Amino acid sequence: MHIELPENVKYIIDELTSAGYEAYAVGGCVRDSVLGRKPKDWDITTSAEPLEVKKLFKRTIDTGIKHGTVTVMLKDEGYEVTTYRIDGEYSDHRRPETVEFTSNLSEDLRRRDFTINAMAYNEKDGLIDLYDGIGDIERHVIRCVGNPDERFDEDALRIMRAVRFAAELDFEIDDATREAAAAHAPELSAVSAERIETELTKLIMSDHPEKLMDAYHMGITKMILPEFDRMAETPQNTPYHCYDVAGHTIEVIRAIPKTKVLRYTALLHDSGKPDCRTTDESGRDHFKGHSAVSEQIAEQVLRRLKMDNDTIRDVKKLVYWHDYGMKGDVKITTFRKGLSKMGIEYFDRFVEIKKADIAGQSDYGRQESLDNLAALIAMRDKVVADGDCLSIKELAVNGGDLKNLGIKPGPEMGEILKTLLGEVLGRPSMNTKEILMKRASQLKK
Fold it and tell me: Is 168 helix (H, G, I), strand (E, B) or coil?
């Protein structure tokens, strides 16, 4: 098998081998090359120890020298070069307490997580595949190298990585690997929120986010996203739905574009339904107020995952508004007020979550829901075409104008501006300086 190595990777391998050491491209870059995917990063493994690597290259960074990793810089590109190693005990289910360098490639490959990530390659020796990674790629299987209990005990995050790789590659998890992952799932409590967030994001951003159900069945979400377990245990006995809340959520994630904000909005948009479910005398379920409760839960989840503030803000906003206007009784005046509160900059993403939400429901009432959404889009287009004012900064008067009326900056001015905006949203023709100054004078009195 031939793999086309980038020139810089070939150069590093050639420099190491010319100096009498072994060197190979290893791990994910080899896996992706075999799969016909373009690798994001190229990692190199070598029998040379870190100080020996540093002597061979002009610019290096000690990225993880304690664990054998040196980053070789070639112009603006960095390539991680790691010495063959044998890991010691993993007392914290994350990092080995000790690392022993070795000159044996097979010892290095046997410490890796999955067979598809335990292949090495250089142009002289070709593909080194000691654990049948090629066979598992052909079988579309995620399988641990060696004993899966040992692999997961070493690093609990590998439990999530198994599901994430299955989602990214559309593979199935090997039975023994699956059983061991389920048994070790409680150890995820020792993994940092940042590492959990990275893997969860990659999973739901993949082409197969439905693999999140594997995480549920293996007890993984119980540890990292217990809100999803509650959703999986909440039926929706209503003609508008054909799935429980978790099943519906999966369909919405699958139907929405692959952006971080939209995928997390889809994941959490109905997270409040378990708290809001009521059942009437006919046996039909209702979920009144679930959008507001879902917004609160979304913030709790995203803060627990140490998500950035911008993502938290945007997801919260979209979760809160995701069910807006679906009864079909919204008038243009009411819509302007709603759009002002939502923020017109969120409207296109609101449309995406609504389209995906409808796609994840039953056929019952689907056309009516699509018609209602189309009506909202038409109203947005009219508001934009008419140049209607939607915010205080778009009013024909500002704080300076109100100061000239003797209104001091502070709570009173803020309240008057809010009142003016509310009246303009109801009657856009009011948005002239003459009318608003006169109205502000009345409000001052």
Answer: helix
Strand 23-26 relative to strand 119-122, pairing: antiparallel
> How far is residue 203's CA from residue 212's CA, in Å, rounded to a whole number?
7
Residue 69 has pLDDT above 90, yes or no: yes
Q: Name the percent of the chain lying above pLDDT 90.
A: 92
Distance CA 427, CA 420 (A): 10
SS3 14: helix
What does pLDDT average to over the chain? 95
CA distance 249 to 253: 6
pTM as predicted = 0.93
φ, ψ of residue 26 in degrees (nearest 5): -145, 155
Residue 43: alpha-carbon gap to chain centroid? 25
Cα–Cα dist 376/370, whole Å: 10
In the predicted model, what is the mean pLDDT of residues 237-254? 96
pLDDT digits (tens, 9 = 90+) for 284-336: 999 999 999 999 999 999 999 999 999 999 999 999 999 998 777 889 999 99
Please tell me the chain's helix, strand, coil percentages from 3-state DSSP, rounded to the nearest 5: 55, 10, 30
Q: Assess contact for 90 and 99: CB atoms under 8 A.
A: no
- Torsion sign over Cα 139, 140, 145, 146: negative
Q: How far is CA 83 from CA 54, 109, 331, in A?
A: 12, 11, 67
In whole angstroms, give the CA distance from residue 54 to residue 66.
14
Neighbours of 88 (CB within 10 A): 12
Measure CA 345 to chain center.
Answer: 21
Instruction: Output phi, psi for 63, to 5 deg.
Output: -65, -45
Q: What is the DSSP string of 266-280?
A: HHHTTTTHHHH-EE-
Pairing relation of β-strands 172-173 and 141-142?
parallel
